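Weekly structure sync, notes
Attendees: PL, DS, HV (note-taker this week)

Item 1: HTH-type transcriptional regulator TtuA
DS walked through the input record. Source organism listed as Rhizobium tubonense. Sequence as pasted into the shared doc:
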Amino acid sequence: MMKIEGIAAFVAVAEAGSISEAARRLRLSKSVVSERLAEMERTLGATLLHRTTRKLTLTEDGIAFLERATRIVREIEDAASDMAERRGTLAGPLRIAAPVTFGRMHLGPALYPFLAEHPDIELSLDLDDRRVDPASDGYDAIVRHGAIADSRLVAWKLAKSRRVLTASPDYLARNGTPRSLAELDGHRGIFYTNRGVADWRFQGPDGPVLIRARLGLRVNNGDMIRDAALAGLGIALLPAFIAGPAISAGLLTAIDVGFHPDDEFIYMAHPEGRHPSAKLRAIADHLKKAFGDPPYWEP
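Item 1 (cont.): predicted structure, written out as tokens:
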């Protein structure tokens, strides 16, 4: 008879890409996960995974089995959560991905009191600035900053996110303060690598305007972009949730060029077609209230 523990081990390995990482997520030993996989393959009479010393890949049978196996595991997790919720308890595993800087500065402090109030929730929070796919990477939801564009995701807005052109007083004293979009052309820019291009996008009276400053630095982390601006390396277009404290302290200066960057949001998104659990909805509602409208980090 097929055991749910074996199905869960197979799904975890397929999502994690390795037995060791799956064992870490399941909080089991590698030997136990390997044993459950082997038993699953014996029960099915099929090889689900190709194992080599360098990598692990799904066989054709594994690919065919994965979709239904994932659905089975999710249904059982949701059923267990629903039973807990019927007893007035938010409980069970939850896996969320979020950007590093926002997670450290705002998401973590907002989540800690919620988790203390609901100790039966088993939250795994992965902080990573790369863009992850919640469906294929095995997340219940992701927290992101930016425009809401991915049609495969159902997004819940948590807070507005205003971006601010900013630089250190020292940089502006040496290079002058730009007062128009045209004056930005001669300045050095500090850009966020994960946006893909080194430019600034503003909303003008006739539509979007793209400004390409001289490249001073490209980096894939918001903390380092702020620190580079503090060091006087150039102008950065930073979210207020990163730049706000430094602007309020006078360490960075907000620059007004007469136009605003595109509107963006802090949002939580889950894969389309997946019924969000009560605990996920409860976390989203809690975060929305914790961040406020307008959000508390506005300078």
